[in-house]
Amino acid sequence: MKKLILTTAALALSAGMALAGSHGQTVRLGTEGAYAPWNFINDKGEVDGFERELGDELCKRAELTCEWVTNEWDSIIPNLVSGNYDVIIAGMSITDEREEVIDFTQAYTPPDPSIYISLDEGLDVEKAVIAAQSTTIQAAFIAEKGWQLIEFATAEETVAAVRNGEADAVLADEAYLKPFEGQDGLVVLERTEMIGGGVGLGLRESDTELKEKLNAAIQSMKDDGSLNELIVKWEVASTW
Amino acid sequence: MFDFCTDPDTLGTFQWFACYLTTGKHMGMYWSVLTVLVLLAITAPAALLFGFFGARAARSRILPLSWLGKGYIAITRGVPDIAFFMFFVIALDQMFEYARHKIKCPDWTEPVRQGNDFIVCTQAKLPLGNSPQWVHETYGFFLAVLTFAIVFGAFTANVLYGAMRAVPRAQMETAEAYGMSRRQAFWRVLVPQMWVYAIPGLGNLWMILIKATPLLFLLGVEDIVYWAKDLGETKHARFTDYPHGDWRIWYFLALLVFYLAFTWVSEKFIARLTRRLSHGQATLGGDAQRKATA
């Protein structure tokens, strides 16, 4: 058993050496791939959406080679911290709680209200069962208010829960929920919630150099208006 | 895939599905079936190997070795799979990286752990930050195989440990009477006979292993269940040429059929193996075979 581990370690070591020094710095971008229009997997099986275009443009401006990786939302922060990828670009809102574990660049979309979607137009959300994706700002918000909350691992499941009557409404980003409006009688409620501090890129706290580069790239996209163009194109948020 | 797929909105049902089921994304799912099969093909023998050494260690007369074997079995069997997968893969990965870090960057002064971050020098990263995606995927796959082998090895070790003890004592005594050494008796008498006692337990483990493959996604390997979930999710016309509602139930139905078919074939195979191994054995099954031919 020990021998097996030793040989495999040696193998991995030599394989690593052979590959070393072939080209410059590569930055791995981690995303969820299940939150259209922010990020999703397109028909070809590639990462697509607002953040795909944004990420590629930022990498171009910061002169980095970037690779896309998908990771489940639940474990997206632990895997960043342990170094499986270098940047989280997954529609992640900047919150104090997350700031304790990772760092954020400046926001690339402004703070936007979250909306409810439900089968019942006159629903009183304070007395209803609300579905939200786990470890999102929306789930934290409902928990804090003390309303009834059901959490799901993916955003899709939250909408399914409303369809089958398990929950009365879903609270999520407007851009994600809007396309569901009108499907099977789903309606957007009038009430909205102003939560979150805008969406930014998540980085390890020690990666200050990379953070500066990306911050500069985001700023240049804000300055020349190309960021607003992207936001409008994908209808993800309000513009700067 | 097909030429007529350029404008899916105009297609009839049959062609639409022909196009839909051959998109790049679906190809990803078909590939993942292969990934799972390859993983099983590598993991099963690896786990058997781990189990065999584990059982031998547990039976050893050298006390520390026996403790090691028994400790491995007890600890690994006692920890929930999902916790083991979360913890072990990260720990393994960091262990490899730390070893490389020590070798490659001896004059690195900063601590490896800085708050929440685990930082080794860039040359020590595994795989290297600048290596292509397939290297990362292969490395993840390799970690998955190793973890599966360790976890299932512990269960296998316990099964084999029991099987080794189930071989009738008279067989071993006869071997000793013939003047065989302990080693000879082990390899020539015990090992060939123990399988018939091990097969039911090993068969169970194989079935569980087949069904445990969705744990792969925890390790970043995209398996069938991940794709079924992703493909089944609601697709809006804005983001795809093939919009559809919540189709997860159909994808999971397909998965159900796949797993049932797979385990059914496995059961048939295990039944055949049991019959073969019972031949000439002093067990009920072996005795029934003897009477049938007599």
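qc> Chain A touches chain B through 58 residues (CB under 8 Å).
qc> done
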